[in-house]
Write a structure and sequence with these properties.
The chain has about 190 residues and is an alpha+beta fold. The protein is built from 3 helices and 9 strands, in the order H-E-E-E-E-E-E-E-H-E-E-H. The structure holds zinc ion (ZN).
């Protein structure tokens, strides 16, 4: 199993990796020990999430294949270690994006309400429950720990690029795309950067 302690945890700054970084498709390992380095790493993840205006971020998204997430979907930062969904209720369908798939959005059906068990940054066992956007963000981030991305669950017909460009009335422009075309765009960007 596990790596509770690794060199990367000592990093004070982290960089968000984008698809097709292979770490995004790996199943993350259980965290065995929660140390001051773990807390520093979670704080660095939260900084990176806020810098990119995200509501959640998972450790694999910054290249660390360990079961840790941060979520702030209700003005309260929630770092979680080894989180597990223990109950789900109802459904909701709504638009999702991902900091590792910038500018791509799609509709995903999720449970409306979830109950989650895990450990906080002090190593204390916690049970949390919530609904709506909070529940959606938790499900999205915990999927990352299994190597899953929102595009695996999105309605393929709902995928759009939202680049921030607006029409004459000030509405955000959405450009429909297929999953295949979208993935090609990310793969090409990687080639250009390499
Ligand atoms: Zn994501």
């Amino acid at each position: 199993m596990a790596v509770g302690h690794c060199k990367m945890l000592a990093m004070q700054r982290v960089t968000i990796m984008t698809y097709p970084a292979p770490v995004l498709r790996k199943k993350a390992l259980t965290v065995e020990r929660i140390t001051p380095e773990t807390r520093a790493f979670l704080a660095a993840m939260a900084d990176a999430m806020y810098d990119d205006n995200g509501v959640g971020l998972a450790a694999p998204q910054v290249g660390v294949s360990l079961r840790m997430i941060v979520v702030d979907a209700d003005d309260r930062l929630q770092p979680l270690i080894n989180p597990q969904i223990v109950a789900r209720e109802g459904t909701q369908t709504g638009t999702e994006g991902c900091l590792s798939l910038p500018k791509l959005y799609g509709k995903v059906t999720r449970a409306m309400r979830v109950e989650i068990r895990g450990f906080n940054e002090r190593g204390k066992p916690v049970t949390l429950s919530g609904e709506g956007l909070w529940a959606r963000a938790m499900q999205h981030e915990i999927d990352h720990l299994e190597g899953q991305l929102f595009i695996d669950h999105a309605d393929p017909a709902s995928l759009v690029w939202i680049t921030g460009d607006k029409d004459e009335d000030g509405n955000l422009l959405e450009r429909p795309t297929t999953l295949e075309d979208a993935l090609h765009v990310f793969e090409r960007q990687t080639l250009v950067r390499a």
